[in-house]
Amino acid sequence: MMRRLPADNPATANDAQVTLCLEICLCLERYERMVINLRLDKYLKVSRLIKRRTIANEACDGERVSVNGKAQRASYEVKLGDVIEIRFGQRTLRVEVLAISETAQKSDAPAMYREIP
Questions:
Q1: Angle 54-70-106 (CA atoms, 0-180°, nearest 5)?
Q2: 70 and 103: one domain?
Q3: Which residues of 59-97 are buried (b: 16+ CB within 10 A; e: fewer)?
Q4: Domain that holds residue 105
Q5: CB neighbours of 94 closer than 8 A, spacing ≥ 6?
Q6: pLDDT per residue over 86-101, tens digit each?
Q7: pTM of the predicted model as reported, rounded to 2 decimal places
Q8: Domain check: are 18 and 55 in the same one?
Q9: Looking at the structure, do residues 16 and 70 belong to the same domain, yes or no?
Q10: CA–CA separation, 66 and 59 (whole Å)
């Protein structure tokens, strides 16, 4: 929603600018509260890339999981667009994070990521 600032009175224009800035700050605060921060080990479990969270934690500790080309700990906070690489023995799985959710049903889990060849 765009507001026009009154140009005839500088004091009124300044008050309107301050009000507009405050509204923008409030909107940003609400947006930040809506963004979910999820640990890497929990994301791997919720997205069903790894079956159990303890196994995901061990994989992170063993440096078999990397995010954006860098080995990460289990406490790393996953962000949209991150590229996660998981090494299972000889096989490597690369996925891009498309969605972050605290919980997901089995049928919805594959929509949380996209496999990258």
A1: 40
A2: yes
A3: bbeeebbbbeeeebebebebeeebebbbeeeeeeeebeb
A4: 38-116
A5: 83, 84, 85, 115, 116, 117
A6: 999 899 999 999 999 8
A7: 0.69
A8: no
A9: no
A10: 10
